[in-house]
Write a structure and sequence with these properties.
The complex is a heterodimer. By secondary structure, chain A is mainly alpha-helical. Chain A contains 17 helices and 3 strands. Chain A has helices spanning 2-8, 15-57, 87-98, 106-113, 120-130, 147-153, 170-181, 192-195, 208-239, 244-258, 261-275, 283-308, 311-319, 324-353, 356-360, 381-390, 395-425; strands at 65-71, 138-144, 185-186. Chain B has helices at residues 2-29, 38-75, 85-99, 109-147, 154-194, 197-202, 226-257, 260-275, 278-300, 309-333, 337-345, 350-379, 382-387, 405-413, 422-456. Classes of the chains: A mainly alpha, B mainly alpha. At the A-B interface, helix 2, helix 9, helix 10, helix 11 and helix 12 of A face helix 2, helix 5, helix 7, helix 8 and helix 9 of B.
């Protein structure tokens, strides 16, 4: 062996060859480092995305509240018509008792009541309407504060910036600090984020309408695309003759999977709303549009799952006299079901995050109540994110991040279920 | 009423199944050999009832609203004389809301009458639907009950229906494509009746907001798509400049150098990047990337527009990294192992093998993937709607604010849409352009990928 190496007569130790090898190794290292760098950039971007969302979004998971003792003055309330009372005045009186030193001046009083959220009066009204016997008594309420004071409490408004650049003036901050010193300010978990519908006021805005809208849309999408997709996939994979028509259908499906989503929105706008006169902003129509987009995904996943079932299963069933449909529906389909369900869930997760087609059919409307049927106007989670991202109020920035975190949580949950199904039920043949 | 119709349908299906099952079982118990199993006799009755009745209900629901409103409208056609389409729509909306019990102000008597008529017709239609459903279901039950006999080939019957249903499912995909093309073509055609074709294709001025009033003719050249098209290309170019090298290099690293453990970490990270909804990327662009680019530009003294193409483009690039990476990984994986082994065997380093053997062999697949990524970048909507500009400019400077085809489609169609203004129809014309562009790129990409597969298979 040593002889052979020597026989080549090549001197591996010459400086020129050594430097040649060094150069080759260096270029090897370079490529490796470039690859690592590329992956590091992708990784960093994901980290940056997540940290920026969490660092802005976590503020919205708590909400500053103020404990106030409200005297339900019979002077402003009519027990016969509790819904028609002058609740603004009652709140002004309440705040006046908190600040006895403040002069009885309209502007000053308005400044005091503006600490409270605009929704406070409705909270009190609802309580009184529910129980008119409370009129004339003093009741304790825990009401949200207005968005600017909420931000002050969370440290998002810096009291050290010059007064003219600040959204809260010195006296307003002093008033709020006074309430804080009395221990009236609390910062509980912001349940309103999930139980309220949309609102113009950030401190009242919640995701309930969007969550219900997204649920109805996804339900419609599932009910349409799941049977249609499975039917189409079974036909194409198991029954279709290899001819021009089935080729055409296949090319069609592959192309549909790559059509931009906004084009599906145009289709829905022209056909569903324009020609069939379906209602605007309805989750049902949104679900139909999403179903058209999810269909190719489900068909492709189902075909792959059917293909993965080994031919021996089919042959065994055929051999004992089953018809071709009995083979497929009795044996192949049940074995392919885990794969089909995985593909369907991934398709639905994509549909949940889809925004553009929903914008075109008007699911970005401003609606302050959750839809009660799939035919009512509603928003969906991604369109709600779009609306809030567009809103000028500072408070909506953290709400948008929080809504995105909620959306991502749902997506992660759906994908986790898909992975679980795949690992639990997938068979290796 | 619709609910009642569905209940009737469900009952009829169950009744049909049980009835035929029992009848077939009685024949079998009588000692006759049956051609088909009893359950197929039952299934035949169920399907025979289900399919036609279900389609009746769906078609009824699709068209009842339109038909009823047409009837109401024809009853008061005198009131619509001299009204534009927009005003006519408003009147119909008012009548509808009166019918729904929401009355604003004091509407004229004829509107109240029309609303009353609308309510009456809706009730009538509901009852007619129930009656039609019940009648059709009964007829189908009777017909299928008559078929039960020992010779009847119920299994073949069932399988024929199921086969037909599956063919129907498969053709839905074709109908969707036809629907897309038809709706785009129809509205685009109407658009070109108002705006000359060449003004749209070659115009360099895009100001769709100009024709506001009905009597106003669109200003010359207000619907020129070139600046919008150019903006789309600028943003797609920025995205590809970012996504292509990062995506390819990470695919090379993953394919050739990474240990299994690293691959096990990196692949899910890329999948997460791919699964993030685009509206989230859009918010990321306006929250983090755009301010960062602006302050960086301010440090260098560069004038950077607040919604620069750079921000939208680079975030879109991040979105496309996993897309390109997974395509390139697949393409590299499809190169036969013998090529790689041969190259390593003659003493090439891994890097040389990758760059001089594997990569060239995988080029067609990679190019196909890049083309598909470009088509995605052109069709991507939410990132640009949130982070790019609204005003079309003839510029290729990525520091400027540009607009894209998708941004214009969304901004033109958000809010109220009357189907007869060029402003609305322009969105469909742009959609047509977008559809054709992405279709061509996709077909080209698929063809390249397929051709390349043939070499090694």
């Amino acid at each position: 062996m040593t002889d052979q190496t020597n026989n080549t007569g090549f001197d591996w130790t010459t400086p020129s060859f050594q430097s040649h090898m060094k150069r080759r190794r260096r270029s090897q290292l370079q490529l490796k480092l470039l690859g690592l760098g590329a992956i590091a950039i992708a990784f960093m971007m994901l980290m940056l995305l997540i940290t920026s969302l969490i660092s802005t979004g976590y503020h919205a998971f708590t909400q500053t509240h103020l404990k106030i003792e409200v005297f339900l003055d019979p002077e402003h309330l009519d027990p016969a018509k509790p819904a028609r009372g002058n609740y603004r005045q009652i709140l002004t009186d309440t705040m006046k008792t908190q600040f006895p030193d403040v002069p009885d001046d309209r502007a000053e009083l308005r400044k005091l009541t503006s600490i409270l959220s605009n929704g406070a009066q409705f909270q009190i009204r609802d309580r009184v309407v529910e129980n008119p016997g409370l009129i004339g008594e003093t009741v304790q309420f825990d009401v949200p504060v207005a968005d600017t004071y909420d931000q002050l409490n969370k440290g998002l408004i810096d009291p050290d910036t010059p007064e003219e650049y600040r959204r809260l003036k010195n006296d307003e901050i002093a008033n709020f600090e006074l309430l804080k010193d009395r221990g009236l300010v609390t910062e509980p978990l912001n349940t309103a984020l999930l139980t309220n519908a949309d609102s113009r006021f950030p401190e009242l805005a919640g995701l309930k309408g969007a969550l219900v809208g997204s649920f109805y849309a996804l339900l419609t999408c599932f009910l349409l695309s799941f049977p249609l997709g499975i039917g189409a996939a079974i036909y194409l994979e198991e029954f279709a003759p290899r001819n021009r028509v089935s080729d055409l259908i296949e090319i069609n499906i592959n192309n549909l999977a790559a059509v931009p989503s906004v084009v599906f929105g145009l289709l829905a706008l022209a056909v569903f709303l324009g020609w069939f006169g379906m209602p605007r902003s309805a989750p049902f129509v949104g679900g139909m549009t999403l179903a058209l987009m999810t269909l190719p995904t489900i068909i492709i996943a189902t075909r792959a799952a059917l293909k993965a079932v080994p031919p021996s299963i089919r042959e065994a069933a055929l051999a004992v006299g089953a018809s071709r449909q009995q083979v497929v529906f009795g044996h192949v389909l049940p074995l392919a079901m885990p794969g089909i369900l995985t593909g369907t869930i991934i398709g639905l997760a994509q549909a949940l995050g889809e925004t553009a087609p929903l914008l075109l059919i008007g699911m970005n409307a401003f609606i302050t109540s959750a839809p009660s049927t799939p035919f009512d106007s509603a928003t969906a989670l991604p369109t709600q994110i779009f609306i809030w991202a567009d809103s000028p109020e500072r408070g909506f920035v953290s709400r948008t991040s929080a809504a995105i975190l909620v959306l991502l949580t749902f997506l992660i949950m759906m994908n986790a279920v898909a992975i679980f199904l795949r690992q639990k039920f997938e068979r290796k043949w | 009423m619709t609910l009642l119709a569905f209940v009737i349908l469900l009952t009829a299906v169950t009744v049909g199944y049980v009835m035929n099952l029992r009848a077939a079982r009685a024949i079998r118990d009588g000692g006759t050999r049956m051609h088909s199993l009893e359950s197929f006799h039952g299934g035949y009755a169920a399907l025979m009832t289900l399919v036609p009745t279900f389609f009746l209900i769906v078609i009824w629901m699709l068209f009842q609203g339109t038909v009823i409103e047409l009837i109401v409208k024809s009853g008061i056609s005198g009131q619509f004389e001299g009204l534009g389409t927009g005003e006519a729509q408003l009147v119909m909306a008012e009548i509808r809301s009166i019918a729904g019990g929401r009355i604003f102000g004091t509407p004229e008597q004829w509107k109240l009458d029309a609303a009353e008529r609308l309510v009456a017709l809706r009730g009538l239609s509901g009852w007619l639907l129930v009656a039609a459903t019940a009648a059709l279901a009964t007829v189908m039950l009777y017909v299928s009950r008559r078929t039960v006999s020992s010779e009847f080939r119920a299994r073949q019957g069932v399988e024929r229906i199921v086969h037909g249903l599956m063919v129907g499912c498969a053709t839905v995909a074709i109908f969707v494509t036809i629907g897309i093309v038809a709706s785009l073509l129809f509205e685009t055609f109407r658009f070109f009746q108002m705006v000359p074709f060449w003004d749209f294709v070659l115009g360099t001025n895009w100001e769709p907001q100009i024709p506001i009033r009905e009597d106003q003719v669109a200003a010359e050249g207000a619907f020129g798509m070139l600046p919008v098209f150019l903006g789309t290309l600028v943003i797609a170019f920025v995205a590809m400049v970012i996504a292509t090298p990062i995506g390819l290099l990470s695919a090379i690293y993953l394919h050739e150098f990474a240990s299994n453990r690293i691959r096990g970490v990196v692949k899910p990270v890329l999948e997460v990047l791919a699964g993030v909804p685009t509206v989230v990327y859009g918010f990321f662009a306006i929250l983090v990337i755009a301010p960062a680019i602006r302050s960086f530009g301010a440090d260098l003294g560069l004038p950077i527009a607040s919604n620069t193409a750079l921000a939208a483009g680079s975030v879109m690039g991040i979105m496309l990294i996993p897309f390109i990476s997974s395509f390139a990984d697949d393409a590299l994986g499809a190169v036969p192992r013998s090529l790689r082994d041969g190259s390593l065997a003659v003493g090439a380093t891994q890097a040389e093998t990758m760059l001089k053997v594997l990569f060239p062999a995988a080029i067609p697949g990679i190019v196909g993937g890049i083309l598909l990524a470009i088509s995605r970048a052109i069709g991507e909507t939410m990132i640009v709607v949130m982070a790019a500009g609204l005003i079309a400019r003839m510029t290729i400077n990525p520091l400027d604010s540009v607009t894209t085809v998708t941004v214009q489609i969304v901004t033109l169609l958000i809010g109220d849409t009357a189907f007869d203004s060029p402003k609305t129809l322009a969105a469909f014309a742009l959609g047509m352009v977008l559809f054709l562009m992405t279709l061509c790129i996709n077909i080209l990409a698929l063809r390249i990928v397929r051709k390349y597969r043939e070499i090694y298979d």
